């Protein structure tokens, strides 16, 4: 379902590098490694901002150079912009920016003139030009909900409490379970209310969690869509300056970790023209340009796709999707921004993507619950692993070396959250 404009194989401009931009401490990010491999295999020089010199991305053989820059995601924007410009001057030529988190995507959009100007000393960065306020609004759970209402896109019913009193009132009238999410991208690191998307079973559980949220809780309380009557779908795409899809892909999420939460552990490419059309119409209406990663849940009770999350940047699992002509969303963006044609080609239906370090615990959890995904193919037409690649082995072994401690910590946090009367889920 890749919609593009030529039948040739991708021929990138190898004089224009790519830079992976990430803010915050999450060194085990397979999406960044995937982007480095995707363009690096085509001969594009690749650079990356990393936490240190020993992250999986930093040791990839397809990386020209890592720029170790520990950040928290809570720094003042001016400091982050100056840091990016400093890296750009060290690269020394115009470079395509590839953000891997909402903080980076929002920063780039809100400082387009500074980052792209000729006064940068290296010719400026290349990135899709977009209305400056739009990525922040899309990354905000409240902003996204309001856009869905404005443009007739179905999303779960939601409440946005402004005070403890609002939460007490909600707990007295809402139908449980409900879902709590951090409301804004930039506050999730400074003042996170929950450790990710969290299902809350009872009013008492909500009130217990709310004790730590303060007088102005930064949460959205959302209708829970029962997993037994729903199915999780994903859309990845790249839209050009006219909000026209130059690459469009759809797939179904089979497993995630934590179970039924945001991080895809196992997914398949599945053709879904209805979903692709819904995404294309919404993007055209709001005028977005660039790479997107959408999470939707198909609700069997009313037969509707409900938009859960809009990530205005590449998704970690983007390498699930590649067209028969070798195009993924990162290659499409690089080609388009450098004035090259984006080859046409259908998506590889039935292809599978597996994130090795999280799919095994996810598999065990899903087997216990008995949950299945009806639209998942019974047999994969091919498999792409997030970490292991025969031409680039070091990221896999570096991931293994760094996974043990954070993996154990995450399991402990899940157990603790469960003991407090809620479950991290979507």
Describe the structure.
- It is a single chain.
- With 426 residues, the chain is of the alpha/beta class.
- It has helices at residues 30-40, 77-91, 102-110, 112-116, 134-139, 141-151, 164-173, 187-190, 203-210, 273-286, 329-337, 356-369, 394-419, and strands spanning 18-21, 46-50, 65-68, 95-99, 125-126, 158-159, 178-182, 198-200, 219-223, 230-239, 245-256, 264-269, 290-299, 304-311, 351-354, 382-385, 422-424.
- It has a 7-stranded mixed sheet with strand order 14-13-10-11-12-15-16. The protein has a 5-stranded parallel sheet with strand order 3-2-1-4-5, sandwiched between helices.
- Helix 12 links the parallel strand 15 and strand 16 (382-385).
- It is globular, with a radius of gyration of 21 Å.
CA-atom Rg in angstroms: 21 Å
Elements, N to C (H/E): EHEEHEHHEHHEHEHEHEEEEHEEHEHEHE
Give the integer mean of the pLDDT values.
91
Shape: globular
Number of strands: 17
What's the arrangement of strands in the largest beta sheet?
14-13-10-11-12-15-16
- Ranges where pLDDT stays below 50 over 5 or more residues in a row are 3-7
Supply the number of helical segments: 13
Distance N terminus to C terminus? 27 Å
Précis, in short:
By secondary structure, the protein is an alpha/beta fold. It is built from 13 helices and 17 strands.
Write the layout of secondary structure elements.
Elements (H helix, E strand, L loop, with lengths): L17 E4 L8 H11 L5 E5 L14 E4 L8 H15 L3 E5 L2 H9 L1 H5 L8 E2 L7 H6 L1 H11 L6 E2 L4 H10 L4 E5 L4 H4 L7 E3 L2 H8 L8 E5 L6 E10 L5 E12 L7 E6 L3 H14 L3 E10 L4 E8 L17 H9 L13 E4 L1 H14 L12 E4 L8 H26 L2 E3 L2
Parallel strand pairs: 1-2, 1-4, 2-3, 4-5, 15-16
Antiparallel strand pairs: 6-9, 7-8, 7-9, 8-17, 10-11, 10-13, 11-12, 12-15, 13-14
Helix pairs in contact: 7-9
């Amino acid at each position: 379902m890749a919609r593009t404009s030529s039948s040739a194989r991708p021929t990138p401009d190898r004089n224009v590098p790519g830079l992976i931009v990430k803010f915050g401490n999450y060194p085990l990010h397979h999406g960044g490694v995937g982007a480095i491999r995707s363009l690096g295999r085509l001969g594009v020089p690749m650079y990356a901002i990393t936490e240190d010199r020993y992250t999986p991305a930093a040791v990839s053989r397809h990386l020209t150079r890592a720029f170790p820059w520990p950040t928290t995601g809570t720094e003042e924007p001016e400091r982050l912009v100056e840091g990016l410009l400093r890296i750009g001057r060290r690269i020394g030529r115009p470079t395509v920016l590839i953000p891997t988190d909402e903080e980076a995507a929002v920063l780039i959009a809100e400082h387009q003139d500074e980052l792209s100007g000729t006064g940068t000393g290296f010719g400026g960065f290349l990135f899709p030009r977009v209305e400056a306020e739009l990525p922040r609004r899309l990354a905000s759970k409240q902003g996204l909900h309001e856009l869905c209402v404005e443009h007739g896109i179905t999303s779960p019913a939601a409440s946005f409490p402004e005070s403890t009193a609002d939460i007490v009132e909600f707990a007295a009238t809402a139908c449980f379970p409900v879902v709590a999410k951090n409301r804004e991208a930039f506050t999730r690191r400074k003042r996170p209310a929950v450790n990710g998307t969290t299902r809350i079973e009872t009013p008492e559980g909500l009130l217990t969690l709310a004790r730590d949220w303060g007088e102005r809780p930064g949460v959205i309380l959302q209708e829970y869509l029962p997993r037994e009557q729903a199915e999780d779908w994903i859309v990845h795409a790249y839209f050009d300056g006219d909000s026209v899809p130059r690459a469009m892909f759809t797939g179904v999420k089979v497993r995630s970790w934590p179970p039924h939460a945001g991080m895809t552990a196992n997914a398949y490419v599945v053709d879904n023209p209805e979903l692709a059309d819904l995404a294309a119409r919404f993007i055209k209406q709001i005028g977005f340009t660039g790479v997107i990663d959408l999470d939707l849940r198909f609700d069997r009770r009313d037969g509707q796709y409900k938009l859960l999350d809009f990530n205005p940047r590449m998704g970690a699992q983007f390498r699930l999707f590649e067209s028969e002509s070798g195009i993924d969303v990162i290659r499409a963006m690089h080609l388009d921004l450098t004035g090259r044609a984006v080859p046409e080609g259908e998506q590889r239906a039935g292809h599978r993507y597996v994130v090795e370090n999280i799919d095994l615990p996810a598999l065990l959890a899903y087997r216990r619950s008995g949950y299945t995904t009806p639209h998942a193919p019974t047999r994969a037409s091919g498999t792409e692993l997030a970490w292991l690649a025969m031409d680039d082995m070091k990221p896999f072994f570096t991931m293994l070396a760094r996974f043990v401690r954070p993996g154990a910590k995450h399991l402990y946090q899940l157990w603790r959250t469960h003991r407090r009367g809620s479950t991290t889920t979507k």
